[in-house]
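[audit] Reproducing an earlier prediction to check determinism. Same input, same settings, fresh worker. If the tokens differ from the archived copy the diff job will pick it up downstream; this log only records the rerun itself.
[audit] input (162 residues):
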Amino acid sequence: MIEFYGEVSDYTKRRADKLKKRHFALWLGALALLSCAVTAVSAATSGRFVVFLICTLVLAALAACLYFLPMSKKPFKDVWKFRVVVENGVLTFTQYLPGKTVEKIKKLDRVKRVIKTDYCYYVVFNDISNAVVCERCLLKKGTFAAFEALFPPEKMREKNIP
């Protein structure tokens, strides 16, 4: 059994926010590339490409802003208090909110990837927006090696988020 429990630090919250912004920036960048191809085809065929060009530039600028935007310095107002228990191939995620408790149970074989940073693990099931944050300093039971051994090496990614 591996257990992470406690309140996630403000620094880790800001890093998670930065990781989400970078993920969406990459999607916007891909959309900008697609829009660039449409602009090129439009310019070659009809000559009316100004609208497509403006859309491409706006998408590219938005993607660049999201990707290179510095990490937020202001503290988060909400409290992230979690309990993550990994046992028998199942991850149980419990979030303690004011006045209620939310629990989600997921099978480990549904994990798409695990992003490992110096401070935490992000266990991604379908999208980075729904990643489970396991802050390394909140490990109560088990070891980091045992946690990492649960996932195949091709799903583990180390990332340094400046």
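[audit] rerun output stored. Observation attached for the diff report: Strands lie at 2-7, 81-87, 90-97, 100-107, 113-116, 120-124, 132-135, 139-141, 156-158.
[audit] end
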